[in-house]
Predict the 3D structure of the following.
Amino acid sequence: MNITIKDVAKAANVSVATVSRVLNKKTNVSDEAVQAVNRAVEELGYSPNFLGRDLRKSETKRILAIIASTEHSFYSEVLRGMQDAAYTQGYDVLIATTRDDPEHEMHLLNMLFSKAVDGAVLLAPKLDSKTISELAKKYHLAMCLERLEGCEILCVTIDNEQAGYDATKLLIGKGRKRIGLITTKVRSQSSIDRENGYKRALRDAGLPLDEELIYYGDYSYDSGFKGCEELMRLKTRPDAVFSISDTISIGAMTYAIRNGINVGKDVLFFGFDNISYSHMFIPRLSTVEQPCYLQGKTVIERLISNMKAEDPDRSTIMLPHSLILRESTGDSTY
Amino acid sequence: MNITIKDVAKAANVSVATVSRVLNKKTNVSDEAVQAVNRAVEELGYSPNFLGRDLRKSETKRILAIIASTEHSFYSEVLRGMQDAAYTQGYDVLIATTRDDPEHEMHLLNMLFSKAVDGAVLLAPKLDSKTISELAKKYHLAMCLERLEGCEILCVTIDNEQAGYDATKLLIGKGRKRIGLITTKVRSQSSIDRENGYKRALRDAGLPLDEELIYYGDYSYDSGFKGCEELMRLKTRPDAVFSISDTISIGAMTYAIRNGINVGKDVLFFGFDNISYSHMFIPRLSTVEQPCYLQGKTVIERLISNMKAEDPDRSTIMLPHSLILRESTGDSTY
DNA sequence: TTGCCTATTGAAAACGTTTTACTTTTGTTG
DNA sequence: CAACAAAAGTAAAACGTTTTCAATAGGCAA
């Protein structure tokens, strides 16, 4: 039924080894042999079985990117960076989704343990730091976007604490004294870091830290909407709202607009991630931009280099972020 | 270096065959053997090499979903449906992106030819109908969301022509006489179908087909913005605009709003896909909803059933769509 | 005791490659 | 023309599993 290298060898009147050499562009094979083999491959419509090849070579030239879901277009650029970096070195990137389930995450990592891929990158780990640390010792595993406290693993991310600080400080610089924060109940390290940055900025500016001003929800638009509603119902309203993601921030702004609040004037809004919709929304959202493409590219480059090295790099690399000022903070820049 | 089944066998004092039987939960193996093997597996931290296993069984229990990119969150639900269906049958779904490059699409399909996956689903084919038809004869290949004229392959989609018709007819029903269409220059079958539906609705209503009212751009927000600008500059403006995607429609509405047009009153807007942002935008966008989850679920169920069948199903299945009316057509429904 | 059946086990083949180790052919040089 | 090196080829081992086939052991009836 299936055409194997043996069939090609027979058709080309050479040995199996010769076929293999031709296919792998090795030297030590005559022009006639090359031609005969190529003709046979063509005629038979042969394509080599990767399982056999990969087993023998014990490498697959494939890397698995593990994300939570493809819902957040935010990942798209990161993955593009990963693919570009991988592709130039002859690797393919496959994507799989955990759907926020740590068990499923472990199931996917099985592909790594069982050599179905050469390496893996976690973009939204649900497993705990210790477990991942342990795995990173044995396998070619890395993290991107999200770091984990005390986790010894190659990790490429941004300084989320500093980014939270910068965003908050910018709002303070615009004369705001009561700044709300909408974050998540589920504590990913990035949201913890961003929250810490927010708090440090308040401290540095001598502003009081009012726990009332912090709303804990989830990553959704609806949560942003709800969070803003709660904040606006306080005796003394906030005059600015920093959200740890753009989607949340858009939800928050929506509440404000629907309730007659002048966004960018009465209340300033600041998001995080610079997703494409943040500049499509009216008014355009000011936000923190991460170097998505670069993070993806970097993590793959390092991971592949780790795969060749005897002594793998398990450090955390923080790439620079930047602030993008738009209408929601009263700036008119595009 | 690596722990293989042999090491486990040695440690458990049984043969390799017995270990394999225990691992695969076969009968005909004594309790003692089971325990000894499990203990050894535990102690050595053994996990079976899938390459060996898959080669021997010549099946991987993996299916590849090939999309253009993860940028459009629209795919997310489809993939979720695919994964649910696959997972209940013991399959995993891997995702790979073509980045709109037919050559790269072929490269990814290589994983299918070379048995690295058992089947594949194309969600945004760039290859031509004939090529895909040919491949579908030899491999377990299916399509989802997008059909291809004259392509003999298992395909799960919606009736895009009818959907385009329905949306346009709705606008006509609201008394609109000059309806603009913003579509794409690159002719995917779905956009052709939607455009045809638009035209049929005009014909059926006895409205003239004015080529001026059709703008050909790409799938982006910017293209929608630009398209709307062109349409609004016509001597006689359209009183409604149908776009073949929500992102385009949001771009179009943005132009309108920024230029003082009363959206939902002066001009109605209709999108396509019901992406999450379509109800976050202000005003909320009326749109065509596709059964994303169901399409994904269905295509995988059929594909897996094809993998077991002698005579595979190569028909096109069209699932029902529906209209969602929101503020952009003057409806107040959520 | 003998014979037979069943439950468990193990040795070895098989899956499709690549690669090693060895043989044959070709070509060059003195 | 002998000697030898280089080039081109082959057979077989190896990768890590599963599965086939045969063998062993144990139980039980006669």
